[in-house]
Structure formats: structure tokens, C-alpha cells
Design brief:
single chain; Alpha/beta knot; Helicase, Ruva Protein, domain 3; 2 domains; seven-stranded parallel β-sheet; binds S-adenosyl-L-homocysteine
């Protein structure tokens, strides 16, 4: 299934949000990651100019948001839902971390199911009753000494993980930006470099072939760690060629 269609099957549910600005910021967080379906359970103030302001260019998500008066009504038509919570609960399975939770939602959505991620109130979070209405819990691995993110920031982290999962780790980048990727050097290219390096080290007197010690294996280990790319091998061989020419 197309990644955009998969992301379209994932709804963000915000329960009992008290600051309309957080609703706007959450909409913006969603739209930057390609999600569009927002469900609001009993928001304190919505619609609200502050939500519009903080949504910035994502007010279309606010316009199409579904507003309901209970979590049961919000989740009625979904077949899978995860509660996003900073706290672990006594009951139920241990929480998944954000990446794993995003993967679980993606799997269901890619199979054509409608799924939801549920976020709690800014101060009190999700109640036990709300968490128990979901199929599992997700936690963002924040600093244990200060682990409560702003609501919209938590939405952003989860939506980013969903996007990476939907595009199998390689999401499309804005027009004009292409990550520079040089192919890795092949075995033959690496061996050509090592032979060349050895020749220059011998010719320059740095390496005594009668007493090589462990120099070559050590250099191999160092360059092996670097996982040389083809371009890098070419640069290194260019340096060696220049040194050879300089000697003459
Ligand atoms: N004091 C509340 C936190 C509320 S923050 C509590 O302890 O639950 C508002 C919402 O943001 C939470 O309900 C949750 O959905 C989300 N959130 C914030 N920090 C989080 C974290 N570290 N892991 C998962 N969700 C988090």
C-alpha cells in the first residue's frame, strides 16, 4: 500500500485537551508528517483562534477534525488503538517504546485497518480507564527525571516515527534536497587501495618489507571501521598518486 494511504488510516485522538494552542500545534505536527485525521474528545475550547494561530498552515486539519464527547465515541470505528502515556500502569502489558508502537500501528494500517493513537490531558494525562480502552500503551523514552513532554511535542515525536515507519526509514525529502550517497567501495576497490598504500609506504621508506610488523593489519582494521565509500577510496588513491609523482 502507498505510504500516504497508510498514514491516512491513522488518526490522532486528543482527549480532553485544555489549551486550544496545543490542538493547533498538534495539527501542525501531524501535517508536517503527512497525517491528517484528528479526533478531539471534549476539548475545553474548540474551535478557537489560538488553535488556528498555532496550526499555522495546518488549519485544514482543524476544519476537518471530528469532535466527540467520549473516548468510546472517538474509538467506535477503529479496530486497533494505542494509548500514548508517560506513566506505566499496573494493569495491562508493559508499554512499547515510540518506535515499536509506530511499527505496530503501521502494520495494522498497512493491512487496511483503521487505527488510532490516543493522547491525554496536558496535566493529568490519560486516566487508567482511558488507557484500558486501548489495545496497548506507548511511551516516549524521555529523561526519567523529567519525562513529561508537551502534548503537541509528544504528538510530533509519534507522527515522526509513523512517517519513518511508513516510508521504511527513507521518507521523501523536500524538492531540491537529495542526500549525498556515494556507493560503498567494493572489495576489489579496497584491495586496490591497500596495495597502492603498501607500495607508497615501501617506496617512501615508511614500511620496511623485511620487518612489516603489524602495520598493514592495523591500517586495514582502521579503514575497515570507516566502511570506505568509493569516492573516498578514489580520494585516498589520488593522494597516493600525488605523493608518487612528487618523489620523481
Ligand atoms: N502528567 C501527565 C503528562 C501529561 S502530558 C502524565 O503523567 O501522564 C500530555 C500528554 O502527552 C500525555 O497524556 C501523553 O499522551 C503525552 N506524553 C507526554 N510525555 C510523554 C512521554 N514521555 N511518553 C508518552 N507520552 C507522553
Amino acid at each position: 500500500m502507498n505510504p500516504t494511504d497508510v498514514l491516512d488510516r491513522i488518526s490522532i485522538v486528543l482527549s480532553r485537551t485544555s489549551h486550544p494552542g496545543n490542538i493547533g500545534s498538534a495539527a501542525r505536527a501531524m501535517k508536517t508528517m503527512g497525517l491528517s485525521r484528528l479526533v478531539l474528545v471534549s476539548p475545553k475550547c474548540f474551535p478557537d483562534p489560538e488553535a488556528d494561530t498555532l496550526a499555522s498552515g495546518a488549519s485544514d486539519i482543524l476544519v476537518s477534525a471530528r469532535v466527540v464527547d467520549s473516548l468510546d465515541a472517538a474509538l467506535a470505528d477503529f479496530v486497533f488503538s494505542l494509548a500514548v502515556s508517560a506513566r506505566s500502569r499496573d494493569l495491562g502489558p508493559p508499554p512499547m517504546l515510540a518506535r515499536e508502537g509506530a511499527g505496530a500501528l503501521l502494520q495494522e494500517a498497512a493491512a487496511g485497518k483503521e487505527v488510532a493513537l490516543v493522547f491525554g490531558h496536558e496535566t493529568s494525562g490519560l486516566s487508567n480507564d482511558e488507557v484500558q480502552r486501548c489495545h496497548g500503551a506507548v511511551m516516549i523514552a524521555a529523561d526519567p527525571g523529567f519525562s513529561s513532554l508537551n502534548l503537541a511535542a509528544a504528538v510530533q515525536v509519534l507522527c515522526y516515527e509513523l512517517r519513518l515507519a511508513a516510508y521504511a526509514g527513507a521518507p521523501p525529502l523536500p524538492a531540491g534536497i537529495t542526500p549525498f550517497v556515494s556507493p560503498p567501495a567494493t572489495h576489489r576497490e579496497q584491495e586496490g587501495f591497500y596495495r597502492h598504500l603498501e607500495q607508497v609506504m615501501v617506496a617512501s621508506g615508511f614500511l620496511d618489507p623485511a620487518q612489516p610488523k603489524r602495520l598493514l593489519p592495523k591500517l586495514r582494521r582502521m579503514f575497515g571501521r570507516a566502511r570506505l565509500e568509493r569516492d573516498e577510496v578514489n580520494i585516498l588513491r589520488g593522494v597516493l598518486t600525488a605523493v608518487e609523482a612528487w618523489r620523481k
